[in-house]
Amino acid sequence: MSSSATAAAATKQGLVAVEEARRFMVDCLVRSKTPLAHAKQQADLLVEADYRGHFSHGMNRLEMYINDLHKNACSGEAVPTVLNETPATAWVDGNNGLGAVVGNFCMDLAIRKAKEVGVGWVCAKRSNHYGIAGWYTLRAMNAGCIGMSMTNTSPLASPTRSKEAALGTNPISVGAPGKEGDGFVLDMATTAVAVGKIEMQRRKNEPIPVGWAQGPDGHPTTDAGVAFDTACLMPLGGTELTSGYKGYGLGAMVEVFCGILSGANYATKIRKWTHAGADSEADLGQCFVAINPSCFAPGFEGRLSDLNSILRNMPMTDPEHPVLVAGDPERLHMAKVDRDGGLPYHVNQIKTCTELSERLGVKPIECIRGVKVGYPLKLNIVEKKEVNADFNSEFITRMLPRLEWSAICAAAANIGSDIPSTMPTDILNDMETLQKLHHILLEVDVVEGTLECPETGRIFPINKGVPNMLLNEDEV
After folding, report:
1. Using alpha carbons only, what angle is made at residue 261 by residues 258 and 262, rounded to the nearest 5 degrees?
2. In which family does this protein belong, per the annotation (predicted)?
3. Spatial separation of the C-alpha atoms in residues 124 and 150, rounded to whole Å
4. What's the pLDDT tens digit per position in 264-294?
C-alpha cells in the first residue's frame, strides 16, 4: 500500500529579485508607521547589505526594526537636528529615528563640510541600529571623499578576561576611492564576527567556529544556539592567547568616539536588543567622518588603485584563491548577484518574510527560483519495515545541523509519529523529541518509495535507508 503526507517543501535558498526585496522592505516599513521617504532610505540600506553579501545585516534585520517601530522604541517619522556646529564639526541629535535616516543625514553633513574645509567630523546621539557601516563610507566615496564610520551597539562582546558582555560589536568602516570604480572598503566588527552571523548559523541549524563566542561558563562554544542565547561574543582575535585584547581595545576606541564623544549611551548603559523589539530607546552613539583628498597630495585615487594592484598581485599560497583587498569580496558577490539575477535567501529567511507579510498585511515576497515556501511535499512510501536500534544520542546530535525539519515532519506523519512542526530551540534537552527523531532516522527503514513536489513535478527516489530529502541539499 502507498501512503502520503505533506509538509512545506524545503530548499536551502530561494532567489529574489533585488527590486522585489526592496519593494517588500518598503511595504513592511510603511505599514509600520514610517513615511515613504524614510522607508526607502532604510530599505536601500538593507538591500545594499544583502547585495554586498552581508546577509546578517540585510533582510535578516527587517523584523527587528519592525518590532521596534511597533513598540515605539524607535520613531519612523523622526528627523535629526543639529545641536552644535563648527565649519568642520557637528553634534547631532538623531531624535530616536531610524538608523539609516540618522546616518545618511550625518554623513551627508560631513561630506559638505569636507568639500568646504577639507574635513567633516559629525557625531550623533539618540540613534538606532544603522546597518552596515560601509553604507556610509560608500556614500563618502561616491562624493570623492575618504569616509569613515563607526557605531556602538548593545552590549554583546566580552572584554578580554571577562565572562560577561560589556561592549557592542562596535563596527568600523573606512572607504577610499580609487580609479575607474576601484576602491578600498573596509567594513568590520571589532568582535570576531557580528552577532548577525551567529544568528544566521542558528537560523540554518549549523555550528559556529571556535573563537566566535563564549558560552555561559566564559569558555568558547561552537553551538550557535548557545552562543545566540548567551549573547557574549569574543573580541576580534579571540582569546587573550591569540591577541583578542587588540579587538577589545578597538571596540573600546569606538565607544570613545561614539558613545562618549556624542553624549549617547555606552557600554552596559545601552539597553539589550532582541527580535521581539526593545521596550526603551537605544540612544546609540555614531561617528561619521569625511576627508577631501584633494587637500593633500595630488593623485590620491591613482595611488590607491596602485596599492590595490600591488596587493592583489602578490604571490598566492593557493592558485584558486587570489589575494583580495578590502571590498573585493563584496564586489565579487555583487557580480554574482547580477549574473544570477537576484539575491539568494535561505529558505528560513523566506519563511520569516512570509510570516511578516501575513502579520502586516502586505504582499508576500516572491521568489524567482527555488521551491517556494508552502509548496506541498508528498512522501510516498511503497514499503517500509521496522528495525531495532539502540538509542544513540551522539548520532542524533551529529545529525541535527543537517536535518531539514519539514521533511522530517513528512516522514513522521507517514509512520504515525507526533513530532513538533518546528525544531525545538532546546532540542538537546528534549528527550521525548530526540527519541522520536531516533525512531524516524534509525528504526524505520524505507525499502522503496519517492518524495514528490507536485507543484514543480520533481520526484526524488528513496533508496534503502534514510531518505535523502531528510538532509539539507542545495536545491530540492
Report:
1. 70
2. Belongs to the LDH2/MDH2 oxidoreductase family.
3. 11
4. 999 999 998 876 666 789 999 999 999 999 9
In the block, residue with C-alpha cell 553624549: 263
| Residue 44, domain CATH | 1.10.1530.10
The yes-or-no verdict on residue 177 having pLDDT over 70 is yes
**Domain CATH number, residue 256:** 3.30.1370.60
For residue 232, which of 248, 243, 250, 216 has the smallest C-alpha distance? 216
CA distance 360 to 243: 46
pTM for the full model? 0.74
Q: How many CA within 13 A on the CB side of residue 283?
A: 15
How many angstroms separate the CA atoms of 267 and 283, rounded?
A: 11
Give the Cα separation of 434 and 145 in Å (integer).
57
Here the cell at position 150 is 563607526
Task: Let me know: does 44 contact 100? Beta carbons within 8 Å.
Answer: yes
Within a domain: 216:
no
- CA terminus-to-terminus distance, the chain: 26
Residue 308's nearest CA partner among 146, 176, 172, 189 is 176
* 254, 183: one domain: yes
Q: For residue range 430-452, list pLDDT tens digits in order.
A: 777 777 776 666 555 544 555 55
The whole-angstrom separation of Cα 149 and Cα 103 is 9
DSSP tag of 272: P
Whole-angstrom distance, CA of residue 173 vs CA of residue 186: 5
pLDDT, tens only, 372-418 = 443 344 555 555 555 555 656 665 665 565 556 666 776 676 666 77
Interacting residues of 428 by C-beta distance below 8 A, sequence separation 6+: 397, 400, 434
Both 445 and 360 in one domain: the answer is no
Residue percentage of the chain with pLDDT more than 90: 62
**Residue 24 to residues 40, 51, 98, 349, 438, Cα–Cα distance (Å):** 11, 15, 18, 13, 40
* Whether residues 51 and 88 fall in one domain: no
Of 230, 248, 223, nearest to 238 by C-alpha is: 248
**Which stretch of 43-52, 116-125, 234-243 has the lowest confidence by average pLDDT?**
234-243
Going from the C-alpha of 373 to that of each of 126, 241, 346, the distances in angstroms are: 38, 45, 11
Q: Burial level of 324, CB count in 10 A (0-12/13-18/19+)?
A: middle
Average pLDDT taken over every residue of the chain: 84
Cell of 49: 547589505
